Amino acid sequence: MIDAGSGTLLALQKVLNPLQLDGLLLTHYHHDHTADVGVLQYEWQLQQGARKHAVLPIYGNTEDPLNFAALTWAGATEGHAYDPQSSLVLGPFMITFSRTVHPVPTFAVRITETKSGHTLVFTADSAVTDTLNRFSKGADLLMIDTNFYANHTGKMWHMTSTQAGALAKAAQVKQLLLTHLPQTGNLESLKAEAQLVAGKKIQINLASDINQIII
């Protein structure tokens, strides 16, 4: 599982028992990406007999030592540091990282199934950056932090709809999933703004609970 913001476990329980997780990877430590980590730790602490593994590994960066240390609960969860400059192999997946533009240390992830070569890229929270163009190149599915409509002005710690569409087009991805959606406005308009820039060849969807996408 990637990130665990508020409501993550409630949604997860509809399709998978949280005690059956193999691991959790955190892109950064802002609360909207980690709010349910503590809830998950309590679950693993209290339900020891039903756990798939003795301890749940939680992967995070060590540039925030205090939050990284909190990932370890004796007998329940264990924090594992990932090196953003190296690849991480977890089961059938190879994961690489790319630093994003955000107020705290944040890392986009590129996850490739080694057998098939199918690739998912999640930008995590980020302003637009050329680095993400190269990092996302040729992805089967690109998930972009799209918190702003095209007309947004001011600080850009997230991307606009048109920036998301442009990134998807430049990276020549097959599918684009808009995530970290704004809480106001018409989300279909957000999608249309992204589609106008990305072009008709790229399939675009809005993130939602229990949204299954085959790549």
TrEMBL record:
InterPro entries: Metallo-B-lactamas (IPR001279), RibonucZ/Hydroxyglut_hydro (IPR036866). It comes from the Bacteria. Coiled coil: none annotated. This is Metallo-beta-lactamase. It comes from Furfurilactobacillus rossiae DSM 15814. SUPFAM superfamilies: Metallo-hydrolase/oxidoreductase. One of its GO terms (molecular function) is 3'-tRNA processing endoribonuclease activity. Residues 2-180 form the Metallo-beta-lactamase domain. Keywords: Zinc. PANTHER family: METALLO-HYDROLASE YHFI-RELATED, ZINC PHOSPHODIESTERASE ELAC PROTEIN 1.
